[in-house]
Amino acid sequence: MSASRDDEFGFAPDYDSPVPYMQRTREYYTAIGYTTPYRWAHYTQAPFQPLKKPLAKSRVTIITTAAPYDPTKGDQGPGAAYNGGAKFYQVYDGDTSKQHDLRISHIGYDRKHTTATDNGTWFPLPQLLKASAVGRIGEVSQRFFGAPTNRSHRVTLDTDAPEILARCLADKVDVAVLVPNCPVCHQTTALVARHLEANGIPTVVMGCAKDIIEHAAVPRFLFSDFPLGNSAGKPHDVASQAQTLELALTLLESASGPQTTMQSPLRWSEDASWKLDYNNVAQLSPEELARRRAEFDKQKEIARGNRAA
Question: Which superkingdom is the protein from (predicted)?
């Protein structure tokens, strides 16, 4: 009877809603043996800076959690397993006049439903350059910036966010577009966005983890209901990437105050069952959970060694 009523009223299935990443992550790590729950950054208010000049006259930068490809750091290719050895621990920057091979093997994107074959889905520099060429924005900043995906709130707040702000100010950045990938990436960019706004730079976060971003209370958030790793649009779909950036720019212009969320109208697919998979303990066998615990411990050791190096 319930299913027939759903059909009659045109209801979507209950699982076709934003993935609850904080809950999933908490339950997942408990299931593999880490029983101390992670404290996600939580604010109830956010700083807010209106645009100081029209976007057509603004200098815009990108802040990404993707990492530059390094052939000495193991498999970082499409579909690569989680690679803690490819993580970075200090803010970096890159020349926006050059092409860059940025990858996301070092973070927990949705490896089942996306294969990371198109960095246009997490690094919208090509679309931003096009926006500059047609006058939609004034110019792209000389540099973009890499934000380390750090579970430590203190390191992000006291070290990484101030460093990114200093580099933005040095480049006379007017606006920042932040693009996270994994769950913790979303928290990182939320904290950085808050710091930039508190110090005079308007921001917009383009992301896929709605609960994490809104829990941290950012000024502006463009939500794409896509698998993690696709915050800037669908892979190999230039039109969707262009539309996603345009929505972010529109949000920068239209938001009248902080904690403004805009949802992209784009859908990943008509079948929303992909939302049931990411770190969902109900879908994982005890054997698979044990395997993941062993792999997680291994990657922790690799990351600890790299951080100390």
Answer: Bacteria
- What digits encode the pLDDT tens for the residues 72-125? 999 999 989 999 899 999 999 999 999 999 999 999 999 999 989 999 999 999
Higher-confidence residue of 6 and 212: namely 212
91's tokens: 């803010």
- 156: DSSP letter: I
CA 308, chain centre distance (Å): 26
Report DSSP letters for 105-149, one per residue. Answer: TTS---TTT-----GGGT--HHHHHHHHHTTSSSEE-SEEEEPP-
Which CA distances in Å does 284 have to 100, 126, 201?
A: 36, 38, 43
User: pTM for this structure?
Assistant: 0.94
Check the CA dihedral 73-158-219-135 and report its sign: negative
Rg (Cα) of the chain, in Å, rounded? 19
> What does the CA dihedral 124, 272, 149, 184 come to, rounded to 10 degrees?
140
